[in-house]
Amino acid sequence: MLNDPKNYKENVAAYQPKIPYFKNCLNAFLVGGFICVIGQGIQTFFMYVLHFSKQSAGNPTVATLILISALMTGFGVYDKIAKFAGAGTIVPVTGFANSITSSALEHKSEGIVLGIATNLFQLAGEVIVFGVVSAAVLGVLRLFIEQLM
Amino acid sequence: MIFLYAFLVGGGICVIGQIMMDVFKLTPAHVVATFVVLGAALDVFGIYDRLIDFAGAGATVPITSFGHSLLHGAMSEGHDHGYLGIAMGIFKLTSAGITSAILFGFIIALIFKPKG
C-alpha cells in the first residue's frame, strides 16, 4: 500500500539513500586524525624551536590551525575536504574557523558591516554560547563544592 | 609516539562525531555543541587533562578542548577571586583561538571571493 499515510516511513525507507556508515567513519577517522597530527607537529615546533612550555604551546597551535583553515576556506579547498571527511573536518577546531570564514564570505555581498561583521558568528555562535554557559555552570558548581570541603 | 597517539585519539573523537551524525541524525551544529559541553564536563574531574597528557594535540585540536579550556580559565581565576573570577577568567585560555578566528575570518572574507 504505497499511498497509505500510516506506513509513510516504511514506504519511503526504500527510496532513501543508504548511509555508508563504515566508510564515513573511516574517512572521519583518517582526516580527523591527520589534522591532529598536523596540530601535534605545529605544537612540537612551538615547544622546541620557539621554547613554549607544554601548557602554553596549545594556544599558538590552535591559532596557527585556525589561520591555515581560514586560508583553505578562502581558496575553497576546505569545503571539498569536508564533503569527503564529514565529522573529520567538523570536530577539530579547524571546523570552527571554517564556519566563521565561510558564513562571512557567504554574506560578503551585503557589505562589510552588515554582511561580513554581523554574520561572522552566525554558525559558530552556538559553540561560544554552549561553551560559556556550560563552563560557567560547572565552574560555579565546582567552586561551591570545593569551598564546602 | 605522541604523534601516533594524537592520530588515534583525534581520529577516534571524530569517529564519535560521525556516528552521532549518521546514526542519531544530529546536525553538525548539534554535534559540535555536544562536544563543547562534553569537554567542559570531562574537565570537572580532571579526566580531560589526563587525555591531553596522553594524546597531546589529539586532545587539544578537537573542539572538546574549547569547553575544557573555558572551564580551566574560569577555575584558575575562580580560585583567586571567588565566583566573580569565573566570569573574569572564562576566556583567559581561549582568547588566542577566538581572537585569531575573528581576525583571520574577517581579513580572509575581505580578500577572497565566495566560491561555489
Task: Please provide a written account of the structure.
The complex is a heterodimer of chains A (149) and B (116). Chain A has one domain. In chain A, helix 2 packs across helix 3 (58-74). Helices cover 74% and strands 0% of the residues of chain A. The longest helix of chain A has 28 residues, at 21-48. With 149 residues, chain A is mostly helical. The mean pLDDT of chain A is 89. Chain B is 79% helix and 0% strand. Chain B is built from seven helices and no strands. Chain B has helices at 2-22, 28-43, 47-55, 57-60, 64-81, 83-89, 95-111. In chain B, helix 2 runs parallel beside helix 5 (64-81) and helix 5 packs across helix 6 (83-89). Chain B is globular. The relative contact order of chain B is 0.11. Classes of the chains: A mainly alpha (149), B mainly alpha (116). Chains A and B meet through helix 2, helix 3, helix 5, helix 6 and helix 7 of A and helix 1, helix 2, helix 4, helix 5 and helix 6 of B. Chain A: It comes from Sporolactobacillus kofuensis. Chain A: This is Stage V sporulation protein AC.
Distance between the termini of chain A: 66 Å
Please describe the biggest sheet of chain B, giving its number of strands, its sense, and whether it closes into a barrel.
none
Overall radius of gyration of chain B: 16 Å
What would the principal axes of the Cα set say about the shape of chain B? Answer: globular
In total, how many domains does the architecture of chain A comprise?
1
Percent of sequence in beta strands of chain A: under 5%
Query: Helical segment tally of chain A?
Result: 8
Number of helices of chain B: 7
Please indicate the percent range of residues of chain B in DSSP E strands (runs of 2 or more): under 5%
Helix content of chain B: over 70%
Order of helices and strands of chain B: HHHHHHH
Give the helix/strand class of chain A.
Answer: mainly alpha
Q: Taking all residues together, what is the mean pLDDT of chain A?
A: 89
Number of strands of chain B: 0
Cα distance spanning the termini of chain B: 40 Å
Question: Structural class per helix/strand content of chain B?
Answer: mainly alpha
